[in-house]
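RCC1-like domain-containing protein
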Amino acid sequence: MYFCWDAGSRGLQRRRAAGAGDAELLQTASGERHSLLLLTNRTVRSCGDNSRGQLGRRGVPRAELPEPIQALETLNVDLVSCGKEHSLAVCCKGRVFAWGAGSEGQLGIGEFKEISFVPKKITTLTGIKIIQVSCGHYHSLALSKDSQVFSWGKNSQGQLGLGKEFPSQASPQKVRSLEGIPLAQVAAGGAHSFALSLCGTSFGWGSNSAGQLALSGKNVPAQSNKPLSIGALKNLGVIYISCGYEHTAVLTQDGKVFTFGDNSSGQLGYSPTAEKRGPQLVERIDGFVSQIDCGRPRRCSSQTHFCWNLCQLCDNSSGICYKYYVILTSSSVKLLTD
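Tokens:
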């Protein structure tokens, strides 16, 4: 079951995904104008705009309700990720499938294809078990079980971490600067990227135009073409990183949140007029934060969202309380029950 509303609706609407049976929500992901829902039966549903093929279905310009992506139904999907107009899914065998916009190579299918309406397997990663993927605006990252990082797509700001001599890539490339480092997570933003090691060291690369890499010292560069260890995050005990368009948020082991980067719309959690640089603690959060997510703009402000250990929505008419997840897109907000 999920709850949704948008600019044209009159209040909260409660809906149930048709044909989902007893399956519950496992994970959600949102792009600029589309959303993906991964259910506990390992099927994927999509809704929103499909002008760039981001829903993974042909012949549907737009879908108001989440519908199954048939090409993924037998794959037992483990996780999904959304970029601006492209999507990735990882199946239980560690294979990666991509669909949507691909003009910058962000699909990783070996060609700069304008649109791919149906999920395609990324063959370059065949034989490599992928455990996590993250979509940026026009680039993508993948982390393998043996801690290899792969990147593909646009590289205009060094967001692939391959070096300045590399143009955009239509196939996954190994980020060799991170070889030999046991890694726990990768995160892709607008034009910047992060990786987090198992021991808590944060590595950042790509655009730093708004301070989204938290680089410090004299003559701070506007971008880095290769991963750099981020000293400003070294002693914070970082356990998770989320990247927005031009800002970044990190979650620490003691449940605190630090943000840095662009704050023109207050997306860092404090006043845009405050002159602060580098990672800043987000204050006035009551409770232990368990999850963070950075939004990306579409003719409006970026956002940073925080989720606590228990989120509930109560229906006064029935007296029933539902646990929920929040999907925030530029045009609508969807609450999805756990």
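The longest strand covers residues 320-328.
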